[in-house]
Design goal:
This protein is an alpha+beta fold. The chain has 8 helices and 7 strands. Helix 2 packs across helix 4 and helix 5 crosses helix 7. The two termini are 17 Å apart.
């Protein structure tokens, strides 16, 4: 496994205790009936056979669902992008953060998970409740064609093709790194999110060149912010493992 510049010790410097501000009121919250209706629609659009979910970010290292099989897969026509604006979760009103979504263009190598056989609508509803909570996000949930070593199939993807208010598309990596090195919310920091994603992708043998460059830039940015608080001993300890970031 490649040695990351962004170590657990550097990530720890970005953490601070933040209070959950709750929903901002800017978005239209989904009701229980809305979740059920959306899940029923998506289940009706599903292919016959197993239910697959495409993971490219936090679903890889924190799936929060049971799976019976996993394998690498590629989504062509999409790429990872820190383009979702956050003032909650891993950001705050004082220091907004960024979260990943799939933006158009390129290719995204990720992992697909096969869920147990059963009620697809119920399984999809549980996933929806984890991933989205407002009407404005519904359009970002879609069936994504993916390619695997065994052939092609469709998998359910979240935050795919986001546009409009609350998004910042096509940002340079240097700007993203500046944000991730500073943003933190009640569930953690942007640097922690990046660290977990890159390190877990590497365990699957997936090397995303943009994210790899981004973790180098974030590490440099953290060092520039905290300066004297970082020692060569801290860096060496980071390479030997550090605290569990998952």
């Amino acid at each position: 496994m490649r040695q990351m510049s962004l170590t657990p010790e550097l990530v720890a410097l970005c953490h601070r205790e933040e209070i959950d501000p709750g929903p901002s009121g800017e978005w239209s919250q989904l009701s229980d009936d809305d979740f059920r209706a959306l899940a029923t629609r998506l289940a009706g659009e599903a292919d016959a056979g197993p239910l697959w979910v495409f993971a490219y970010g936090s679903l890889i290292w924190k799936p929060a669902f049971e799976s019976v099989e996993q394998q690498r897969a590629s989504a062509h026509g999409w790429h990872r992008s820190f383009c979702l604006d956050l003032v909650r979760w891993r950001g705050s009103a004082e220091q907004p953060g960024l979260m990943m979504a799939l933006e158009r263009g390129g290719r995204c190598d990720g992992v697909i998970y096969r869920l147990p056989d059963g009620d697809k609508a119920a399984q999809i509803e549980r996933l929806l409740r984890r991933e989205i909570d407002d009407h404005e996000a519904v359009a970002s949930v879609r069936w994504v064609p993916v390619r695997t070593a065994q052939g092609r199939l469709r998998a359910l993807g979240f935050w795919v093709g986001v546009t409009g208010r609350g998004t910042s598309l096509g940002q340079p990596l240097e700007k993203v790194a500046w944000v991730l090195a500073r943003a933190c919310g009640h569930v953690g920091s942007g640097a922690e999110y990046l660290y977990n994603t890159v390190s877990h992708l590497e365990t699957f043998g997936i090397h995303d060149r943009n994210l790899w460059r981004l973790q180098e830039l974030v590490a440099d940015e953290i060092r520039s912010i905290h300066g004297r608080r970082i020692t060569s001993h801290d860096t060496a300890e980071g390479f030997r493992g550090g605290r569990n970031m998952t």
